[in-house]
Design brief:
Length: 82
């Protein structure tokens, strides 16, 4: 997953994914730069993003049931600007 155009609250400190049928959040690992990775065959919902200062936001329903690696799925959520 590449997270682009993040602004308003500095670098991301954490990214987590929520399983489709649950309330638990699974942490992703930073691969390099804006690329985060998670290895799973499960259905997923959108990510929860945590900024370096600890603010969080959720991009709900961004990942469709039939998602494919390499495709782009967009969200319009962003941290507020200072």
């Amino acid at each position: 997953m590449a997270i682009e155009y993040e602004s308003g609250d500095g670098d991301l400190g954490a990214v987590e994914l929520q399983m489709q049928c649950g309330t638990a959040w699974a942490p992703m690992e930073r691969s390099w730069g804006a690329v985060w990775r998670y290895q799973s065959g499960s259905s997923l919902q959108g990510p929860r993003l945590t900024s370096g200062s600890g603010n969080t936001l959720v991009a709900s329903n961004v990942i469709p049931a039939g998602w494919q690696p390499g495709n782009t799925y967009r969200s319009v959520v962003n941290f507020g600007t200072n």
